[in-house]
Specification:
The protein is mostly helical. Helix content is about 45%, strand content about 0%. α3 crosses α4. The radius of gyration is 18 Å and the shape is elongated.
């Protein structure tokens, strides 16, 4: 049996997240905004002024659309994290490990994800 969290790159001694794919928006088309391949290096942050211009945030309609897109992206990421935590719990990861990766306490992790992670993860193919 694989160690707890192995499916997500976690081991009993490691609480680092594996490298994740960068979600690129329309402004992420050049090498400055390309994702880093090293776990220890943070992703480079684009110039906020350039992002504002690229996304049309100089109008109220552009700002409304950008806020809607950001809220949608956050909801998708929250759902992905919920799924990952549920899988990690089924795989035997502890609340201490999950909390450490998310930089919250074990109690915080259990309160935030405990109800959703207590349900059995079902393979959608079955």
């Amino acid at each position: 049996m694989a160690p707890a969290g192995a499916a997500f790159g976690l081991t009993a001694t490691s609480t680092r997240l594996p490298a994740v794919a960068h979600i690129a928006g329309p402004a992420a088309t050049n090498s400055e905004t390309a994702p880093s391949n090293r776990e220890s290096e943070p992703l480079p942050r684009p110039d906020p002024r350039a992002v504002a211009l690229d996304h049309g945030l100089t109008t109220l309609d552009g700002l409304v659309a950008a806020r809607r897109d950001a809220c949608d992206a956050l909801a998708e990421l929250d759902a992905a994290i919920d799924t990952a935590v549920a899988h990690l719990r089924v795989d035997g990861a502890t609340w201490v490990q999950i909390g450490a990766v998310l930089r919250i306490s074990r109690q915080g992790a259990r309160q935030r994800f405990g109800a959703s992670a207590s349900h059995t993860v079902v393979d959608p193919g079955h």
